[in-house]
Design brief:
This is Serine/threonine-protein kinase sbk2. The protein is built from three helices and eight strands. The protein binds adenosine-5'-triphosphate.
Amino acid sequence: MPGKQSEEGPAEVGASEDGEEEGLGGLTVEELQQGQEAALALEDMMTLSAQTLVRAEADELYEEVRPLGQGRYGRVLLVTHRQKGTPLALKQLPKARTSLRGFLYEFCVGLSLGMHSAIVTAYGIGIESAQSYSFLTEPVLHGDLMAFIQPKVRGQTPSMPPSLTCLPGTATGNTDAVLGPPGLSYPPGLP
Ligand SMILES: Nc1ncnc2c1ncn2[C@@H]1O[C@H](COP(=O)(O)OP(=O)(O)OP(=O)(O)O)[C@@H](O)[C@H]1O
């Protein structure tokens, strides 16, 4: 999460006389500090989340309605809460292919990014079952953004659908986006 440059301009330290950066990868000191703080905050969040995982079989708590999608590491199901009937998206990552740390990373990055109004909300519920780790997010039922993206043709930019909600990036760095509820619009300034 790089921050803004200071008003004095980039405060790159370690620049050699010929202008080459030394070890900061083009980041300012401020950006580097912000990145380090964010990494520490993420580590704290992962530690706390590990302590609060619900130990249960997901299907005891939630009833499967239908699959929503399949990723490289797991699948996403539309489920309903067995008592309340609330619709939710349940992302399940098999333990055979996902370490606890990998799960916590994806869960916590989603929690942090999910605070943005244009990104799918994560509900902060992580579940450890015998064979899988899972977490719950807002279900987005209006289709997948990828279906609306046309290849760029001769400088034309594809028109954006009126309302979009982005899924947070995954542990692999991918970002997906799916169409969101009508009230949520993709803000033009969002990177
Ligand atoms: N909250 C959601 N609501 C609706 N559909 C979703 C939701 N989350 C995921 N999906 C669908 O499920 C698919 C798989 O998502 P998932 O997060 O498992 O993998 P991914 O991010 O596509 O890729 P990766 O393999 O890198 O994890 C998505 O492409 C999307 O179509």
